[in-house]
Amino acid sequence: MKQFFYRYESSFIFSSPVSAHSWLLRCLPKEEPFQRVERAQMRASVVRADGDVGDVDLPVCFGCDAFGNAVQTGYVSESHLRFSVVSEGVVRQTPYRICDAAHGMYLEHTALTLPDGSMERFAGQSCGRKEVWPEELFPGGPVTEKALSLCSAVHAYMTYAPGVTTVNTTASQAFALGRGVCQDYAHVLIALLRSRSIPARYACGYLVGEGATHAWVEFFDQGVWRGLDPTNNRLLRYGCIKVAHGRDSSDCSVNRGVFSGRAAQQNTLDIKVEEQ
Q: Would the pTM count as exceeding 0.90?
């Protein structure tokens, strides 16, 4: 068992005051068989537009969504120029394994994960490849072997390129570009896995180190969900703090909100994860 500290800090700075701001967050770790939350806390605050000095804490409602992910919601009616969230805590992890069932929805394509003909051909060609993985990381089985082959193929085919895709880019669009970010890598791999009749779902959270949120894939084999990171071409074991999972990224937004106002917004994000 290993222990990790995480800190998530995000701020939205508005060019002019906004109000009637409803928000939904998924920034607290998800309880899983491989991941036990030892401590977790969060604070949401705003800087008001009426001249008050300092941050004003907001009330937060805690709950779960349809996928069992922890969600935090709230509303602020007053005009404000900045909305900030800080979440930090400690989790303990065993190797990444989730013993559970696989709902049929994880075999169904979504608008973001629908493969086209070129992707179907790519999946067929990639599944026959033999990949070399460290024995201690390889759990065996034909389904896992196919999943690892597809993960390696996606990693080799795609080029990491921020700014060329958006949150609405589909798997087939990203595949045609051959470029994208972790969300695109995950959507492409999910589409390929489902096309080979392997249940797959989108997962997101925080990686060891400093940076932004990260997305990866969970696939189902013989009663166990396992994590695959196509961006880094690895089977996950430790140091990947899971926040949420769903059919695709639209089920797993870390920070979503609506407000009244015509302001432009600038987001700053700082995430840190370290082993203790």
A: yes
